[in-house]
Write a structure and sequence with these properties.
mainly alpha, Protoheme IX farnesyltransferase, 309 residues, single chain, flat, 2 domains
């Protein structure tokens, strides 16, 4: 599959090789929307770890280093996935897939930004933050992109390790390198959030993934099994998300808000088990959108509750 994909990639690039990349094309391969979301999680993790009293300089270096690592990983993903990106309507207009940005340029950008970002974290923050950044980068740009995504229905779950690393980077930076129970409670909250966030999107884009030969859960196991797993991960996320209050890192405002949102999330997930097949995608779209609201609220209340508490 990969060999034929690369053949498709090279012929496609030759066809579009005359297209000139703009500055916006180069920016797009770094997926800055995703990068900004990860920076929100990094900021929240650092804020909680230092009890709302961060060093401004450390905060700046942490956010800059994390942004470069995340953006670098996104560029590496664009480089490697250019073959399957050409096969899916959702991704076929990406700059590398279209041949606007040369694969070699994307690889160079990804590697250079990743290395510089890790160096910033290592030399200007602390080695624990850099280690978390490296793990997230390695899992996303190599394990997930090269192996998990193309070979197992657990790709979303296993790849979730990388998505849960930014708050851990922030926690390490804010705590002086200490990664105690609070750090791991936050890590697993973000980790468990990702399947009920991404699986509804995978349901919406099932035919895209099927065309590209990607073994996403809805493609291989169907919608019913996907909905059951969404419920399981959401049910696990709810109590884990509240542990920060029991560990005295967050106040009762955090507990009440996240308990309410978590229950709403779980109720919506359970509703998916009972919707008619013709309404599956309508439900998936609603759940996907609510997952974004939940993430935004989580990051905001993490900061606000510590400040008030």
């Amino acid at each position: 599959m990969q060999a034929s994909g690369m053949a498709l990639d090279e012929s496609h690039v030759q066809e579009l090789g005359s297209a000139k990349a703009t500055f916006r094309d180069y920016i797009s391969i770094m997926k800055w929307g995703i990068t900004i979301a990860n920076l929100m999680a990094t900021f929240a993790g650092m804020w909680v770890a230092c009890h709302g009293h961060p060093s401004l300089l450390a905060m700046l270096f942490t956010l800059v280093g994390t942004a470069m690592v995340v953006a670098g990983g996104a560029a590496l993903n664009n480089y490697y996935d250019r073959d399957i990106d050409q096969l899916m309507p959702r991704t076929k207009k990406r700059a590398v897939a279209q041949g606007k940005v040369a694969p070699g340029a994307a690889l160079a950008i990804g590697l250079s930004m990743s290395v510089v970002g890790l160096a910033v974290l290592f030399f200007l923050v602390d080695w624990q933050a850099a280690a978390c950044g490296f793990v997230g980068l390695f899992v996303y740009s190599y394990l997930y992109t090269v192996w998990f995504k193309r070979h197992t229905t657990l790709n979303t779950v296993l790849g979730g390790v990388s998505g849960a690393m930014p708050p851990l980077i922030g926690w390490a930076a804010g705590s002086g390198g200490s990664l105690g129970l609070g750090a791991w409670a936050l890590f697993f909250t973000f980790f468990l959030w990702q399947p009920p966030h991404f699986l509804p999107l995978a349901m919406k884009k099932t035919e895209d993934y099927r065309a590209a030969g990607i073994p996403m859960l809805p493609v291989v196991r169907g919608f019913n099994e996907t909905k059951r797993q969404i419920v399981l991960y959401t049910a696990a996320m709810l109590p884990v998300s509240l542990i920060l209050t029991t560990l005295h890192y967050e106040g009762w405002i955090y507990f009440v808000v996240m308990a309410m949102l978590g229950i709403m999330f779980l109720v919506m997930a359970i509703q998916g088990l009972f919707v008619k097949p013709e309404n599956d995608l309508v439900w998936a779209n609603k759940l996907f959108r609510f997952s974004l609201i939940y993430l935004m609220a989580l990051c905001v209340v993490l900061v606000a509750s510590v400040s008030i508490f």
